[in-house]
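Hi C.,

You asked whether I'd gotten around to modeling the 277-residue construct. I have! Everything is below, sequence then structure, no commentary in between.
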Amino acid sequence: MKKLWTLLASVLLVACIGGNDDPNDITDKFDGTRNIHESFERHSDGSITYHAIPWGGLEASVRDRNLPVDWSGYESITIEFAEPLKHSVQVKLSNKMRTFGRVGITKLRYYFDGQDASQVDYVAIQSSDSCTLEIKRVYLTPGTSAWETTKLWEGECSFGNWENGINIPASQFLEAQDGDQLEFIYQNDTSDPKVEYWQFKTIYDGTTTTLEGNADQLNEWGCASVGNSGVFRIHLTAKDVKELRKIGLFVNGFYNIVTQVNLLKRGVSIEADTEVK
């Protein structure tokens, strides 16, 4: 009888864990760690306790029939934590898209925003130091808006090792609104084979204050790490718009080459037809 009750309890636990009916929730796809010295436990509410070591990784395989999935129809992935982060984290998608989450946040939302999300194999959550992460849920948000583009700057600016940058005057932001996006079209500078990461830093011109719109993704020096060549976007807040209208923008970084900067304004909504496979 005891074995029977144990079996029934196990079945009920599995049923509870697998009972999420949100088709865009991928929390249950996290099924392994990258290092044998790491571990994780899944709870009855679907949440995960992850015991991390520096730059190990809790990984979700999202392949469908052993093939990469196409997430082009989604605008972002969100990781919710049950407790404020004590150490910064990195989120990687198929080793070509990545973002950082700073200490103290409980939610990290990473916008795909023009990057190539058509061939995604895995999602990995990594910690910068040994710690325990309490992960409530991880989910995708379908893209439901069209965006209208206004060119702010065009040319070729090679950041190098923080050597060069771009100034965009306040007059270029007079039409900006809360919720608009700044878009940087860039490619990685691979001239130095020792460089293994690429970064942007965006500040209100003439200050050391970084934009607020991507604050959760910045490291302790105010820098955002980006993946392979493509597009980097920042969703502007009301404070960002106020400061940019007043003093403008300065952007530089580490080994990226920027060829265009745009302001994206939200247009009409579009229907999304997406579902995680």
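If it helps when you're writing up: The chain has two helices and 18 strands.

Thanks,
B.
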